[in-house]
Amino acid sequence: EAQVTQNPRYLITVTGKKLTVTCSQNMNHEYMSWYRQDPGLGLRQIYYSMNVEVTDKGDVPEGYKVSRKEKRNFPLILESPSPNQTSLYFCASKGGAVYSPLHFGNGTRLTVT
Amino acid sequence: GQNIDQPTEMTATEGAIVQINCTYQTSGFNGLFWYQQHAGEAPTFLSYNVLDGLEEKGRFSSFLSRSKGYSYLLLKELQMKDSASYLCAPLGGAGNMLTFGGGTRLMVKP
Question: Is the pLDDT assigned to residue B1 strictly greater than 70?
Fold first, then answer.
């Protein structure tokens, strides 16, 4: 089944403790992206990647890192999480055509205390 | 950047028709997507319009007017399961990026 898998689904952590949210897709998509979703602010792009070893900042990259060493994986790294990074995070991928839709993972609800 | 405006909330009755509007401002426009998102779940793709006019897909239709920077999503024969948020997302701007509106939360009542 074609899918985007992100883990964990829920994560509660403390300020400053490094964490990684994994994302993997099995559709051979070149494009992958991370979003955060907050009430009243909608989906905002954190980082995206057009291909292996190519990553770019989205609208809200501060406090986040990503890597794209393999086509299928695009982990999101929070080196020193802070409470304002408490949010619902989605990973997504898409095919190469302009009209290709984004395929989203099931989301990771992160709480930083 | 892109400015996207859609109503925050709408309420409709089961079996009725509802139209969710979206206005946008973007340079280098390359089409507009609509996504459905149930509470706590991932967004799922509904439609893509790049040319003016109406695209029909079963109970859901999407309309685009590029000159007016306007799109709407039309839902017919509403069902309770249509209660969800509907996200308007134009494609364009610097880097040909997809930007999401804040979403319209639709509540379908019996």
Answer: no
Instruction: For chain A, say whether B93 makes contact (Cβ under 8 Å).
Output: no
Say how far apart CA B40 and CA A10 lie, in whole Å. 12
Contacts of A35 in chain B (CB under 8 A): 100
pLDDT number for residue B96: 75
A1, exposed or middle or buried, with CB in 10 Å at 0-12, 13-18, 19+?
A: exposed
Amino acid identity of A98? V
pLDDT at position B2, please? 64
Backbone dihedral angles phi then psi of residue A83, each to the nearest 5 degrees: -55, -30
Average pLDDT over residues A33-39: 95
Q: Do A98 and B91 touch (CB under 8 A)?
A: yes
Quick one: closest CA in B to A10, which residue? B40
**Cα A52–Cα A93–Cα B100 angle in degrees, nearest 5:** 125
* Average pLDDT score over chain B: 94
* Residue B87 CB-density burial (10 A; 0-12 exposed, 13-18 middle, 19+ buried): buried
Whether A35 contacts B103, CB under 8 Å: no
Q: What's the length of chain A?
A: 113
